[in-house]
Design a protein that fits this description.
The protein is of the alpha/beta class. 37% of the residues lie in helices and 17% in strands. A hairpin with a 2-residue loop joins β1 and β2.
Length: 295
């Protein structure tokens, strides 16, 4: 892993890291709600580098080592989805952060791979900045077109209740314990839980956002006023676990149905993570969709 670098979008600094594969096709990784780039498993990254990708990952604003915004009233992230209040920033601002990273790298365009809320964001980056995006891979995400109450048809409330009940002591040890507990909650039921890898993620994540509900609320409360998924005209891969604890498979189906020519891959036994046993397959699928763009 290389040293942390920073791109600028106005007053916001976005931390990013070159994960290897220089000279390959540019691939930008976008992780989910509240968590940092360190949640991308090194083994999966190695598989992507082995498919001739130059891989870079970044921390979204309000996560990891990127700029954090001032705390506001404590609001549960789910409540922030539906509450009418002035946002700290917009979803458009968040898409522009990714473009700032591309600019800092000198990449005129890139393939995008987003997981969870990162999967939602790559849809919006492609809509807002179509000339900068070659392909998108959407993993375990909501469709961009679903907002407000429409999201309820895709969410699994039981997970949200369980996650909200997690309690851990303050400090570094509590952060690691919380991250490990979250990893267990979203682990794939059809595959063995890889506790060693989950613990390594928690220990790498020096600035944990797992328990920062205020930052999560700001991210999830960022309003999107952009276009629709039907506007996209680029190769798209949609991955979704059949046992995803947060979003029902219908979310992946809806995303794929809205984008002409999108490839939907439902992963049996997979939760809201990407288990080790599937890293080779996932990397192959990402390579296939990238090759479609080249063709």
């Amino acid at each position: 892993m290389s040293a942390t670098r920073y791109a600028r979008n106005g007053d916001v600094e976005i931390a990013y890291e070159d994960l290897g594969g220089a000279g390959g096709d540019p691939l930008l990784l976008v992780m989910g709600l509240g968590v940092s780039r360190f949640w991308w498993q090194p083994g999966l990254v190695a598989e992507l580098v082995g498919r001739d990708f130059h891989v870079v990952a970044y921390d979204q604003r309000d996560a990891g080592e990127s700029t954090r915004f001032p705390d506001r009233e404590a609001v549960h992230p789910v409540v922030a989805l539906f509450r009418r209040q002035p946002p700290a920033y917009t979803a458009e601002d968040m898409t522009d952060d990714a473009i700032a990273v591309l600019d800092a790298l000198g990449w005129d365009s890139a393939h995008l791979f987003g997981h969870s809320m990162g999967g939602l964001l790559v849809q919006r980056i492609a809509i807002r900045h179509p000339g900068r995006v070659r392909t998108i891979t959407v993993s375990g995400a909501m469709p961009s077109d679903a907002g407000g109450l429409r999201l309820l048809r895709y969410l699994r409330p039981a997970f949200l209740v369980r996650a909200s009940r997690l309690r851990f002591p303050e400090g570094r040890a509590g952060d690691i314990a919380a991250s490990l507990a979250l990893a267990r909650l979203v682990a794939s039921p059809g595959y063995p839980f890889d506790e060693a890898s989950a613990l390594a993620v928690a220990e790498r994540d020096a600035v944990s956002g797992v328990r920062d509900s205020r930052a999560q609320s700001r991210q999830i409360g960022a309003k999107w006023s952009g276009g629709r998924l039907a506007e996209l005209r680029l190769p798209t891969l949609v991955l979704h676990g059949t046992e995803d604890q947060i979003g029902r498979p219908a979310a992946g189906r809806a995303t794929a149905a809205a984008i002409a020519g999108a490839r939907l891959v439902l992963l049996p036994g997979v939760g809201h993570d990407l288990p080790r046993a599937l890293w080779t397959r996932v990397a192959d699928e990402v390579r296939l969709v990238a090759d479609r763009a080249t063709a």
